[in-house]
Amino acid sequence: MSAQQSQGIQTLLEAEKEAAKIVQQARQYRVQKLKDARSEASKEIDEYKKAKEDEFKAFEASHAGTTSNAQNAVDKETESSLKAITDSYTKNKDNVVKKLLDRVVLVEPELHRNLRAQS
């Protein structure tokens, strides 16, 4: 019987070793799957980030033209207003200077309204 018992014990030890190998392989498989899942998630995050950056750049480019067009319109309007003011200045400066000189030089003396004629 002792041979049968030792053979039974030997079989149990071999089964235990085989079970330990299977458990170790399962742990390694689980660790590898976690690494693969992290790697895949990282790739998805990078792809999503790149897609959003491209979308933002497209949005920015489409609206940058609008800002440029608005700036050009404002510049043209300012330039035309400035030209109109300059033309008006050039046209009327002689008349204004003449009126100012007439007011300063041609003074007609008169009595103040509060001064009463004394009788």
TrEMBL record:
**Pfam family for this entry, one:** V-ATPase_G
This chain's protein is named V-type proton ATPase subunit G
The terms describing its cellular component in GO are: vacuolar proton-transporting V-type ATPase, V1 domain
Keyword Coiled coil tagged: yes
Q: Which NCBIfam families match?
A: V_ATP_synt_G (TIGR01147)
GO terms, molecular function: ATP hydrolysis activity; proton-transporting ATPase activity, rotational mechanism
State the similarity comment: Belongs to the V-ATPase G subunit family.
Question: What is the originating organism of this protein?
Answer: Mycena indigotica
Keyword annotations for this protein, in alphabetical order, are: Coiled coil, Hydrogen ion transport, Ion transport, Transport
Coiled-coil regions, chain positions? 12-54
Under the subunit heading, UniProt states: V-ATPase is a heteromultimeric enzyme made up of two complexes: the ATP-hydrolytic V1 complex and the proton translocation V0 complex.
Biological role? Subunit of the V1 complex of vacuolar(H+)-ATPase (V-ATPase), a multisubunit enzyme composed of a peripheral complex (V1) that hydrolyzes ATP and a membrane integral complex (V0) that translocates protons. V-ATPase is responsible for acidifying and maintaining the pH of intracellular compartments and in some cell types, is targeted to the plasma membrane, where it is responsible for acidifying the extracellular environment.
Q: Among its keywords, does the record have Cell membrane?
A: no
